[in-house]
Amino acid sequence: MPTKGRKPSQRDIARLAGVSQAAVSMVVNGKADQYHLAATTQDRVRAAMLEVSYVPSVAGRSLRGGRSGLLGVHTYESVFPVAVDDYYHEFLVGIEQAAVRARQDLILFASTQSADGTRSIYTRSGNRLNLADGAVILGSQQSNEEIARLAAEGYPFVYVGRREIPGVNLSFVTAEYAGGVRSVLDAVAAAGHERVAYLAGANAFGPLLERRSGFSAGVQALALHGTIDVVDPPESLDAPRLRAMVGAGITALLVESPELGRALATAAEAAGLTIPSELTIVALDHADNPMPWSRLAIPRREMGARAIELLLELLDDPDRTPRSAVLACGPLDLVSIAEARPASPRPRSEAATPLS
């Protein structure tokens, strides 16, 4: 094994895996299948590489025209294991399906997790992602400094979700969140609703800001009275608060997150409100409560698959030109969108009140 302070070599890997140095070279340079190296041998080599944190030179591998056939998945938060109704589940299913179609292996980077559950791309030995030809990155708690450094190094990666860092051109795949929210408002307005509230959480990052921007633009375009109400913590949305909203004339709610959805379900039951006859509700994201509510379909599985496709395009492009994809949200079901209840006439000055 390598002495302390020395980076592990292919000779070290060969000794640990019990194979020849030539076999290690085949795996590192993506030639193992070409030379019919047994799958079990390839697995031993890769396991040894992980054990000693061996990081092959991507530049050298590229000059030799080879790839390892490994695509990385780096998450800034823990996402495994995931239940079927977990936020990340569909992303990961899409990533796996696309990798299978492309006959690529996946490697999850998890060894850099810190005590608080967050993960880093870089360790004392360098960029861990170099074990793979390129990587798909997920997570809302990203380090902009790390992402900028990764881009400057020329490492090929695709972010799931729009990420904007000044001076850095990134490859990403995202959903048309603003357009999806506008489709919700169109359906709500068509049902006769005029006073609509958007229930927002304390977080404010990319996709959430796009949803809120779409709401603001939509209520103005449709001449609705719209408010964005920040609910923090979610449990503060109780029955009295919900009754006050309904008493103020609000007949439709757009719910930003699953946490707020659960709080709203509890508050509505406690307030004795019937959904949707007394209050129209639309969830703008994955909702894991059992209520039969209308939900905006975010194309998570398609986003995960498209991220792999974009990554493979990057790997085939000698110039590594950044690219992006914006996917439309799915059709909205109308199960909890009902016709608005008759309301008493409002003073002319209240019509189309600006957002608060």
From TrEMBL:
Q: Which residues form the HTH lacI-type domain?
A: 8-65
Any GO molecular function: DNA-binding transcription factor activity
User: CDD domains of this UniProt entry?
Assistant: HTH_LacI (cd01392)
Matching InterPro entries, A to Z? Answer: HTH_LacI, LacI/GalR-like_sensor, Lambda_DNA-bd_dom_sf, Peripla_BP_I
Keywords in alphabetical order, please.
Answer: DNA-binding, Repressor, Transcription, Transcription regulation
Domain of life where this protein originates: Bacteria
Q: Does the keyword section mention DNA-binding?
A: yes
Q: What is this protein called?
A: LacI family DNA-binding transcriptional regulator
